[in-house]
Amino acid sequence: MMREWATVVSWNNGIATLHSEIKTSCSSCSARKGCGSHMLDKLGPKNAHVMKVASAEPLAAGQRIELGIAEKSLLSSALLVYMTPLVGLFIVAGLFQALFHTDIAAVSGALLGGVGGFILAKGISTYLGKSASFQPVILSVALPPDALRVETDR
Question: For the chain: N or C, fewer Cβ within 10 A?
């Protein structure tokens, strides 16, 4: 199970809105100038994900919770997102090449197959996203920010 800590933004009627920070190792790596991941990190979302998770117990804003998601669901999602467009690209490009016997047809088929595979992957992921095995679960809940009070005698 993959684990990640998140902060509760709000809780309303059994649904918690969570804020999770993105962690990258780009700041500690010495190969930043020649790294593609560093460039993609600069282009993408800056530092946070906001998500909603079902929670039966009431949560306070600012409270930290540990989320978990099964490796199987994460790996199958990655496989779906990367392989479906690639398989569509090869199959439709080969089909168009066999039917029309031109390179332009193969390129057109590759574009159609890649885009079609992406659209198919998006539809399947929407369907799979409703499954309980693809949803993050709350593993542990930390104390609310105002629950612990330290007093000193002076």
Answer: C
Taking the model in full, what pTM does it have?
0.65
What tens-digit pLDDT sequence spans the chain (154 residues)? Answer: 888 889 999 999 889 999 887 665 565 666 656 666 665 566 555 556 788 888 888 888 889 999 998 899 889 999 999 999 999 999 999 999 999 999 999 999 999 999 999 999 999 998 988 888 888 888 988 887 777 677 787 6
Same domain, yes or no, for 57 and 103?
A: no
Q: How many domains does the chain have?
A: 2
Residue 102 to residue 66: CA distance in whole angstroms: 55
